[in-house]
Amino acid sequence: MTATIERGSATAPVNTPASKKTPTPKKPGGFLSSSNGKKVVMAVTGAVMVSFLVLHMLGNLKIFFGRESFNDYAHWLRTLLEPFAPYRTVLTILEIGLVLAVVLHMWAAISLSRRAGKARPVKYVAKKSQANGYATHIMRWGGVTIVLFVIWHLLDLTFGVVNPKGFDSAPADRMISGFDPSRWWVTLIYFVAVVMVGMHLRHGIWSAFQTLGWANKDRNKALRATAGLVSIVLVVGFLVPPLAITFGVVK
Ligand code: HEM
């Protein structure tokens, strides 16, 4: 969604005699209420979520080392810092951090997109709208799809509500039964959602590079390639376990 806003376009000074006579009053509010502040919020919370995704993807790959290895990993996550901290303390703190990151990311995205809408009462026409329209659609509808997917995903593999093995089962059993060949349509849902996540990430990481001020003519190619590479590695890493289970490679 950040891509819909031309850098500084809403606040760029207009060099006319009128603007000299009546300087634009400073908007009340701190850094967080400025467009730049919100973009920084998006970049930082995005980085938190990408870090989670990298760790989550690596954890999922443990299924290739056997059910026990996968279950041990799930158990380890819940018993971190025991006996100094009670069962699930660290995991709960990480989960709260992740929820906060998701909420702040969505808040900044919605408020930036509203601001862009207000600053542009007349819709863009011609070519420009196609490029911006693509990014806006990918980020806006991609974001909504990802939220819906995560709700389904939690009901499936965390709470077991829509999983054949139910809640009272080992994580590896939920995973292997969830992507059973007979449930190929579940794998298809994951496939579409993960590709959406990849497209969202590619654009989001590139936007974050711009927000951080790293983008310039010499580096843009390398930065775009980095955003693409990170997204492809995550998409492939996430898709390999469900596909391996559905195609009977992991049983
Ligand atoms: C497509 C492959 C994926 C697989 C096989 C997978 C598998 C799992 C499993 C097994 C759990 C439960 C872990 C446990 O109970 O210990 C889990 C939790 C979770 N997954 Fe995924 N996941 C995938 C993709 C994703 C994606 C793309 C996202 C985010 C966009 C995501 C977000 C989450 C979240 C937020 C949790 C809850 C974490 C927690 O509360 O500890 N997952 N996933």
UniProtKB/TrEMBL annotation:
Which GO CC terms are listed, alphabetically?
Answer: membrane
Start and end residues of each stretch annotated as Disordered: 1-31
Chain ranges passing through the membrane: 40-65, 85-110, 131-155, 184-201, 222-245
**Domain of life, per lineage:** Bacteria
Q: Which InterPro entries match?
A: Cytochrome_b-558 (IPR011138), SQR/QFR_C/D (IPR034804)
This chain's protein is named Succinate dehydrogenase / fumarate reductase cytochrome b subunit
> Calcium as a keyword?
no
Write out the entry's keywords from A to Z: Membrane, Transmembrane, Transmembrane helix
Organism equals Nonomuraea thailandensis
Keyword Transmembrane tagged: yes
